Amino acid sequence: MGGGKRTSLLVVALICSNLETIFSANTGFSMSIYDVTSRSIYLSWPKFSGASSYKVTANPVNTVGQSLLAHFSDVTLKGTLTSLIPNTIYVIQAEAIDKNGIILAETQIMQSTAPDIPVIDQAYSKLSNSITVEWRAVLGATSYLLTAQDGDSFIETTVTNSPGTVTGLKAATLYRITIRSINSGGRSQPSPSRKAKTVLAAPILSVSSPSCNSIAVSWKAVYMAAGFSVSLMRSDGLGRMLKENTTNTSLIFTDLDPGTLYTIKAYAWNVNGMPGDDFTYNQRTSPKAPADVQVAFNSGTLRAIVSWMPTEGALTYSVIASNRLLKLKCNTSSTSCMVPSLQCGSEYSVFVIAHNDAGSSKPTVAVNLRTIPCAPGSISIEEDETGILLVSWSSVNFGRYYVVFVKSDDGLEVHCNTSHTQCHFQSDCGFTYFISVFAYNKAGQSPLGDVFNYTTAPCCPSDFSAVVVSSDTLQVTWSPVRGAEMYETRAADWTGVVLCNDTAPACTLSALRCSTQYNITVYSFSEVRGSNKSCASKYVATAPCSPEIKNISKDALSVISVYWQSNNDEATYIVTARGEAGLWHCTSSGNSCTIINLPCGSVFSVSAIARSPAGQSLPSYSVPLETAPCCPNDLTLTQVTQSVTNISWSVGMGAQTYVTTLESPKGQAKCHTLQNYCLLGCITRGTNYTVSLKAVSETGLTSSCTYQGYSSSACCPSGVKLYRLGNNGIRVHWRASEEMTTYNTDLYGSKSNFTCAPHSGLSHCDITEIPCGDVYSVVVTPATAKGLKLTLCPKNIYSVTCSGSSVGMVIYRKRNA
Hints:
Residues 114-201, 202-288, 289-374, 375-459, 543-630 form the Fibronectin type-III domain. The chain is mainly β.
């Protein structure tokens, strides 16, 4: 069993991979199969050179069966193997044999036969375009070929199992039906045929709902039909089914429910009463007219809201509003609709129609609609008198009364309700009034018409003030007033008018005459209404004219008098001297005044102004003024050498150069310098001098300054020598310059210093107990009255040696200036 199973698997594998593969012992000889049936295999081969006959054998594979042998002459190149076993694999071998019986060439092929021929159990038609066939399954068949033949035409269909259906057939037509089984080898011969006729075609319905309670059905004639059956029933299953049999091609069902979906089924039958295909159609009856139609006007607009009760089966609704000139329509799927674009002051007839896919209902009974009135026209606005506006208009169709709204540009609104065509309103200056007129009736308010505006004249600036800017300029200011877009300021005197135009609430009037009375008026303007000429004026005087300084006189060192030309009897004049040192003033109502306590060494600019109740003039032209330079506060004299004295002083305000003089009966020393010091030579020693200084300004102004006298010191002594006295004493000796001069003696050593002052008239001084072994600087100077020591006398240097512990030799070294 195991070996047989393996052999079967091997054969199957060989079949799958080598089916229809030709095995040839000689590549010049081959064989092919051109048809296969259940029991036959049709072969062909090419003519082989030298062959006088051909031998073909067929042996079944893995199946118990008789081999088949066939011989063919050399002129026969095709052969058929018959009486084979269905659904069986054969090994087919062909040999080319010469006239001596020798095999010249051979070839081999494997081929399966087709399955056995099926047998039809029954064939019938349920649909007008198809026939269904039933049969018993055939061993080895993988599919089946159904054929329906009508004369010379046929239709084939491949199916996998029973039952199978041939489609695409003609209705009411007789067909001959056959079937073949198919496997990988081929297909069997056709089965014995069966005849079957397709049923009648279904009538194609045309359905409509001519009214809300009827449905009309019609159709075209059906081939071979003897009559028709048509049934109708609500699609929701409610109610009873209506059925009609007829030989006609149309009928009408009545007494149906409006707006209801019905299912309609129809079929034809032949003379034998056999029904054909049926046709199903869903049809809804048209809706009935809506009920309880209500019309409401949308207040203040030209739209009406129409509502109604819902209607069974209605999908959409149409609302139609019409008058003699216009028809308006509104479509909706709800139970209300807004009809737009109505005309004001008109009457409309309004009705509603329901729709669905079957058609439309009858219109409802018309409802009358009167719209709102149109906006009043021909509006005029007049100002009857100051503060009163008259608004008038023309009457409108269907207007019962009117309301006029007047709104000012500050937001305040008033209105007038009247059945007439005019109204009066209170107004005020500088306002723009927006005026609209509405008409009313039961439907509501008319649309907004033209909005008119009326602007009253601008208000007058009543609180303006004039401020004097200068003697020829006035600045006029005021609070802004309603309605004014521009202002004109006028200043008039007996010579003419000065104008100033500006949009700001201020204006500067220039080029006026000083000390002049002007009549000032401020007018307001607007582009719409023009100027308000009723504005009040006031008189304003300009400031005094500027005074002119005629002369300045210097009355003393720090006193000046200023003179000017007076031009205004009401003015007070103020003179100011202005400089870096500060301001000095004097005031007078005449034509002169005096300024005192001016500082020395200063430069001033002197000007004058006039001041009156009208204002203050511009300053006069300035006149420059310079005071004499100041004397230096401090002056110091220092004797540099016995004949040279240095004089220094503090800076004098306003001084550029200085002249210094030392004067005595013996002579004069003088110095002119830009500096604040000076060296004066040729000074006589021990002489009293008078000291004076003159400060000179850049412009040549001078101040003479006198200071305390100066006495030059006595001359330094000469011949200063040093002598040893006793063991530890030293005598300093000199020659006096004058007999009654007192001198001071100073010795300066590295170990200590010594001073001695002899009596007046002596020319020596003794110092005891001086250390030896040191170098001493010896200075002898005249004594001053204040006890100061002069530093201008020379120093003499001596070495004092030691002899034991006592003073030894005194040796002169040198002299220092």
